[in-house]
Amino acid sequence: MTIRREKAERLADEELMPLIGKKDPEAFEVFYDRHGGVAYSLAYRIVGERAAAEDVTQEAFISLWRSGARFDSTRGSVRSWMLSIVRNRAIDQLRSKAGKAPKLTFDDDSVLEQRPADELTEEEALRRETASEVRGALGSLPGDQSKVIELAYYGGFSHSEIAQMLGVPLGTVKGRMRLGLEKIRGELAEGLA
Amino acid sequence: MTDDSNMTWFDQLAGYALGALEPEEAAEVEAHLADCERCQAHLRWLEPAVAVLPESVERQEPPKRVRENVMAEVRADAKRAQAESAESEGFRLRDGWLGKLRSSAYGWKPAVALATLALLVVAFAGYEIGSNGGESGGSEAPIARSGQAPGVVAEMIPEGEGGKLKLTNVEQVPDDRVLEAWVQREGEVEAVPDLFVPNHEGRASTTIEDMDGVEIVMVTHEPEGGSATPTSDPIVTMPIPD
């Protein structure tokens, strides 16, 4: 059953989810139009091919459509949930293509478990930061720190794999990753102040 | 806990937040998190930094076919769900007004169907073909008009292969209710996707994309978001001439 599109457009993502759970295509169409661009962009950034990015985006949205009823708004934002699904599936495809067994657990529901409810408001506020500001925070990192973050997040590589690739000690990779992530977080917090 | 061990765990938490741990390492972190409030707080603080990473990706426009493919599958799913829901509610509906309309006892042979429908309509609210009060609002003449709930005037304006159903003198609906239209083809009732509500003047309209083979158009009050099958008596029941 559907509701009018104009009405759906006025609803927040978290309000759309119950309708999507009730199999409302209009609500889902609005959701896709809001997030399809960033989802495809993320998929393309990870897999590096348009056809594969299309597959990942389609699969992720269909997965979300079919599991929409299980979304728990107290556990995190829908956008983060959706992007985590996209990222997991893209990494899965990347690793499958490389002939590796998927390292991650690709249970879309598990993404929800990782995000505490009291993070929601702050996370939503952070999302409203412009992409250029976020890029600025990333750009301000020393190259060796941004490198390990990119290899982990967009490449799906583990600490030990990155250490091997870069030819540096495991502890160095761990330290760079922590310092880089903490620095991004600190700069985002400053931007919100 | 020492500062060194904190740093070790914080290193692991950064890897955990970025998905850079091997499964056994992730399990170890999760076990530790269960008992360490300091690490729980640090992870909560770190997670937004990971959440914004996708926002920094250079934007690419997805091809239109992605949307088309997704929505084709979504609509097919929704249709299946609707059919299953209708099937499961069939028994209940047979005792209701829709059941009477659909019952094989009425044998939906067109001529009999229309005659039967007219009787049912009278029973509901006083059927009135050609009732005044509606405005066509289009260049083409209405293909049918009827009123149901007291004072309601309904008219169907052809639009390509479909039509626009226009209602006037409709009572306001509560915030949690909407109007939902239904079409009947070969005895099967289908929902019209476009839900609607009356404006402050009591006018309401919805679009029916495909009028091919439609025998009857009905409108009911339904909960917000609509229903898979009608849950209330119709305020409009309009036979559509061949």
Number of strands of chain A: 0
Uncertain residue segments of chain A: 101-121
Largest sheet of chain A: none
Mean pLDDT of chain B: 74
Helicity level of chain A: over 70%
* Biggest sheet strand line-up of chain B: 1-2-3-6
Overall pLDDT level of chain A: 79
Describe, in plain words, how this protein is organized in 3D:
The complex is a heterodimer of chains A (193) and B (242). With 193 residues, chain A is an all-alpha fold. Helices cover 73% and strands 0% of the residues of chain A. Chain A contains eleven helices and no strands. In chain A, helix 3 packs antiparallel against helix 4 and helix 8 (131-139) packs across helix 11. The longest helix of chain A is centred in the N-terminal third of the chain and has 23 residues, at 25-47. The radius of gyration of chain A is 18 Å and the shape is globular. Chain A starts with a helix and ends with a helix. The relative contact order of chain A is 0.09. With 242 residues, chain B is an alpha+beta fold. Chain B has a four-stranded antiparallel sheet, with no helix packed on it. Residues 90-95 and 102-140 of chain B have low confidence and may be disordered. Chain B has helices spanning 3-17, 23-33, 37-51, 64-94, 97-102, 110-125, and strands at 144-146, 153-159, 162-168, 177-185, 188-191, 204-208, 214-223, 234-239. In chain B, helix 1 (3-17) runs parallel beside helix 3 (37-51). Chain B contains six helices and eight strands, in the order ααααααββββββββ. The longest helix of chain B has 31 residues, at 64-94. At the A-B interface, helix 3, helix 4, helix 5, helix 7 and helix 8 of A face helix 1, helix 3 and helix 4 of B.
